[in-house]
Design brief:
Order of helices and strands: EHEHHEHHEHHEH
Strand order of the largest sheet: 2-3-1-4-5
Number of strands: 5
Bound molecules: thymidine-5'-phosphate
Strand content: 5-15%
Shape: globular
Oligomer: single chain
Structural class: alpha/beta
Largest sheet: 5 strands, parallel
Distance between the termini: 5 Å
Length: 217
């Protein structure tokens, strides 16, 4: 059986990941592909509990504890939801994965990025995405998009500009280090244009795999 395809979306808060995940999922579903949309943190019941702690706990969470909480969410999510879907041959479209840990906990929180990556890889038993779409956006612009949403900020969104600038720089460094896995898109481009570029990459990967987007095996 052909293994499915694992696509992750990364970027700062407010970069448009959810919109792009939705557009890609619709396009794939229209072509008969079996699609699973999910996210970290919070893609499972256990994950929803962890998400509540990491995003909404009032007061400090020690940096190593925060990194372990994201890794715990990831371990459970990958083992119980993502791997089974990939083994069925589904396309998994996921909001955020280990690159978010490296960028936020590694660069943003000054834990070593290599140790954060190793922790995540241990948690996920080495699973890496086939494609990671990085929606790159200036943190100041992202902030004005979030302000326009008129929702309360979570713990990470409320961080200072310097934190978000470090996160952005780390995402870009990760993309430079793994150019085959990453597709970097300027998030200020129209959503439809970004979606077109993402579709082209996904179509290429699926073709290389089976010769047909809708093929089950
Ligand atoms: P989101 O689901 O709205 O994108 O929010 C998740 C927040 O959690 C976001 O600010 C990024 C952060 N995050 C980490 O700090 N580390 C991680 O490993 C993941 C997956 C998310």
């Amino acid at each position: 059986m052909t293994r499915g395809l694992f696509v992750t979306l990364e970027g700062g808060d407010g970069a448009g990941k959810t919109t792009q995940a939705q557009l890609l999922a619709e396009w794939l579903s229209d072509r008969g592909a079996s699609v699973v949309r999910t996210r970290e943190p919070g893609g499972t019941e256990v994950g929803a509990l962890i998400r509540d702690i990491v995003l909404h706990h009032r007061g400090e969470v020690a940096p190593r504890a925060e990194a372990l909480l994201y890794a715990a969410d990831r371990a459970h999510h990958i083992a119980t939801l993502v791997r089974p879907a990939l083994e069925r041959g589904d396309v998994v479209i996921q909001d955020r994965y280990l690159d978010s840990s490296v960028a936020y906990q590694g660069a943003g929180r000054v834990l070593g990025r290599d140790e954060v990556r190793e922790l995540s890889l241990w948690a996920a038993e080495g699973l890496l995405p086939d494609l990671t779409v990085l929606l790159d956006l200036d943190p100041d612009l992202a902030r004005s998009r979030l302000d326009a949403d008129d929702k309360p900020f979570d713990r990470l969104e409320a961080e200072k500009e310097v934190f978000h600038a470090a996160v952005r720089a780390e995402f870009l460094a990760l993309a430079t280090a793994e150019p085959d896995r990453f597709l970097v898109m300027d998030a200020t481009r129209p959503a439809a244009e970004i979606a077109g570029a993402v579709r082209d990459r996904v179509a290429g990967l699926l073709e290389a795999r089976s010769g047909d987007v809708g093929a089950a095996d």
